[in-house]
Design a protein that fits this description.
By secondary structure, this protein is an alpha+beta fold. It has one domain (about 25-275): Endonuclease/exonuclease/phosphatase (Deoxyribonuclease I, Chain A, 4-Layer Sandwich), CATH 3.60.10. It has helices spanning about 1-20, 45-60, 70-80, 165-180, 205-210, 215, and strands spanning about 25-30, 65, 85, 105, 110-120, 140-145, 150-160, 190-195, 210-215, 240-245, 250-255, 270-275. Strands 3-4-2-1-12-11 form a six-stranded mixed β-sheet. Strands 5-6-7-8-10-9 form a six-stranded mixed β-sheet.
Length: about 280
């Protein structure tokens, strides 16, 4: 009789164990690294590059997008953060020249399936200025597979213009249209970037119809300044973002303000990190 009772309880115990399992999460990050040839005094790239690598290894995002990175900065991250690889091109020539909006991925956690870069302009397939932009601007997209869940997802990274209002509006509309077109299967999608606008800017209106803002949806969140100009700005609205769709939610969103050994700041922007829930 005891054996019969125990056998009858096994399915209930198995269901209980399964239902109590924590949902799988995917940590992602956006990081404006500040271009490495800037005349930043004590904050020059060589003084803070090891701190930036320490931050990446400490936060350990599965995927992260960088803005303003030059090729030698990308090479340094790949050299020091051994599990990461990256894809992207220079915005000036579509190869190495100029800033990269590259996507880094943890090869132990995700697999790269496809990727590409386009320019935020009227001619997105070739290096070009868009509308009233002061600089050439790009977006890099990746199709990845999460090795833990086996699920495919897209990750897009961009940097909107800091001067041209029309360029920001139309550039982001282009990103939104591309996101719609590239994902007919409805796979989960992530967009990171330095948008150079605050959360109330109408530039973000169409994007908000398509994707959720991790900052606004996470129960544990952080609304503090992201561009701080080497600690000179301590109170302002953020301009760096993580947007997502196709995930069940965002568990936590945070601005990474802590210092790492070797430098008081990893960049003139604080990185932003989201823990997305499958």
């Amino acid at each position: 009789m005891k054996r019969i009772v125990l056998l009858s309880l096994l399915p209930l115990l198995a269901f209980s164990c399964k239902s109590n399992k924590a949902p799988e999460t995917l940590p992602v990050m956006s990081f404006n690294v500040r271009y490495g040839t800037a005349n930043d005094g004590e904050h020059v790239w060589t003084n803070r590059r090891d701190a930036a690598c320490a931050m990446i290894m400490d936060q350990r995002p599965a995927v992260f997008g960088v803005q303003e990175a030059l090729d030698f900065q990308l090479d340094y991250f790949v050299e020091k953060c051994l599990m990461y690889k990256c894809v992207g091109v220079g915005r000036e020539d579509g190869v190495h020249e100029g800033e990269h909006m590259s996507v880094f991925y943890d090869t132990e956690r995700v697999e790269l399936k496809d990727w590409g870069t386009y320019w935020l302009s009227e001619t997105p397939e070739v290096p070009s200025f868009g509308w009233d932009a002061a600089c050439k601007r790009t977006a890099t997209w990746t199709l990845l597979t999460d090795k833990v869940t086996g699920k495919d997802f897209y990750f897009v990274n961009t940097h909107l213009d800091h001067v041209g209002k029309e360029a920001r509006l139309n550039g982001l509309l282009l990103v939104v249209d591309r996101i719609k077109a590239m994902n007919p299967e409805g796979n989960p999608m992530i967009l990171t970037g330095d948008m150079n606008v605050t959360p109330d800017d109408p530039c973000l209106t169409e994007l908000r119809k398509l994707m959720s803002d991790a900052r606004q949806t996470a129960p544990e969140t952080d609304n503090e300044v992201t561009w701080h100009d080497w600690g000179k700005i301590t109170s302002s609205k953020p301009i760096d973002y993580v947007f997502y769709s196709g995930f069940s939610g965002c568990e936590r969103f945070e601005v990474i303000r802590q210092a790492y050994p070797g430098a008081p700041f990893v960049s003139d922007h604080y990185p932003v990190k989201a823990i997305l829930v499958w």
